[in-house]
Amino acid sequence: MSKRAATSFVNSVWSSFHIRSGLEPTLLSTLKLKNVEPGKVNFELLIEKMHTNRLGILHGGTIASMVDLGGSLAVASKGLFSTGVSTDLNVTYLSSGGKVGHVIRGEATCDKFGKTLAYTTVLFRNEDDQLVARGSHTKYVKIAFTEPGNILEELSPELNNDTSRRATGL
After folding, report:
1. Which end of the chain has less Cβ packing within 10 Å, N or C?
2. pTM of the prediction?
3. 95-149 pLDDT, tens digit each
4. Which residues of 72-108 are buried (b: 16+ CB within 10 A; e: fewer)?
5. Per its UniProt record, what Gene3D superfamilies does this chain match (predicted)?
């Protein structure tokens, strides 16, 4: 998939989150996609009060939600409109992500994409470009291959060949 096609496709998936989901459009309303290419999505979040804990710093739950969303969008950048369901999500917090008015940047990468599972990593950096958190997110994607909004022809050749074999009974 070209960078342009990946950008357009991921933007349409992000729009569907705004329309169909309750959490992401509420909690992550200030999240902006900055760069998209096949297998990688860069985004940033302007931190507002609702993103912070009682200490006034970015809440770990906000970061965990961005690991979930970022991993899903990294999977989408490979051609899946329905990005599957989470089977595992982990976050390691290294330092404060910032305060109200600061921006935190995320880079989500689809590390491995198979017929059943997709594995993603999300790294978070503060305004000083310091690594503040890292997350991993595993998605069960087997059922997502039936979504009519997918761009299956854009998926890796191994997946296309396997899908073709299943469709023809080989």
Report:
1. C
2. 0.87
3. 999 999 999 999 999 999 999 999 999 999 999 999 999 999 999 999 888 888 8
4. bbbbbbbbbbbbbeeeebebeeeebbbeeebebbbbb
5. Hotdog Thioesterase
pLDDT per position as a tens digit, 22-69? 888 778 889 999 999 999 999 999 999 999 999 999 999 999 999 999
Do 13 and 75 touch, CB atoms closer than 8 A? Answer: no
Which amino acid would we find at residue 85? Answer: V
Pair of tokens at residue 43: 């985004």
117-125 β-sheet, strand order:
31-37, 40-46, 103-113, 117-125, 131-140, 85-93
